[in-house]
Structure formats: C-alpha cells, structure tokens
Design goal:
102 residues; mainly alpha; elongated; Peptidase M28; signal
Length: 102
C-alpha cells in the first residue's frame, strides 16, 4: 500500500516540469566552448598573482585584478570589501628542498 501511495505521490512531478529551451542551451554551450576565458583567468590568478594566502601580497594582487576585470565586463559595483579581521599575513621568502635518494 505504501509503495502505491509513494508512486502516486511522485508520478505527477514530471507532468508539470518546464520545457527545456534547446536553443538557449545550445547558445550557452557554444559560448562556453568557443569564447571561454577560463584558461586566461586561471593563469592570471594562479601563475601571475602567485599564492593567495590570507593577507598576502598575492591575495591583494588577485583581488585587485579580479575587481578590475569585473569592471571591464560591465559590473561597475565591483569592489574589495573587508569581511573581518585578517590578522597576520605571511609569504614564503625562502624554501629549501634536499634530495636524499635518486
């Protein structure tokens, strides 16, 4: 009895589902495949800005670059907002790696 009740409860759902706009889906897919900026954005945030540890120079560079890019895209209200006390920041000034075995 419970199985029948549950099946009747969930059956009408697909009947009221919205139609998918295949043209819009195709347009979104085409835009993503042909005009993607993912590689350029990832390169800028990872390689150019460097490590983005809290309160580090790399974090500040990445934040400032992001705001300027968003403004170029037309999002004029873009800004860096303080969200709390950052505390101390740090950056790696020197690192050392020793190979002990080939």
């Amino acid at each position: 009895m419970k199985k029948i009740l549950y099946s009747l409860l969930f059956c009408p759902g697909p009947l009221f589902a919205q139609e998918m706009d295949q043209a819009a889906i195709a347009k979104i897919r085409k835009e993503g495949m042909e005009n993607s900026k993912v590689k350029e954005i990832a390169h800028q945030l990872t390689d150019v800005s460097g490590p983005r540890l809290t309160n580090s120079p790399g974090f500040q560079r990445a934040a400032e670059w992001s705001v300027s890019e968003l403004k170029k895209w037309g999002l004029q209200n873009s800004r860096i907002e303080d969200w709390g006390e950052f505390g101390k920041g740090w950056q790696v000034e020197k690192s050392y790696l020793a190979m002990t075995k080939p």
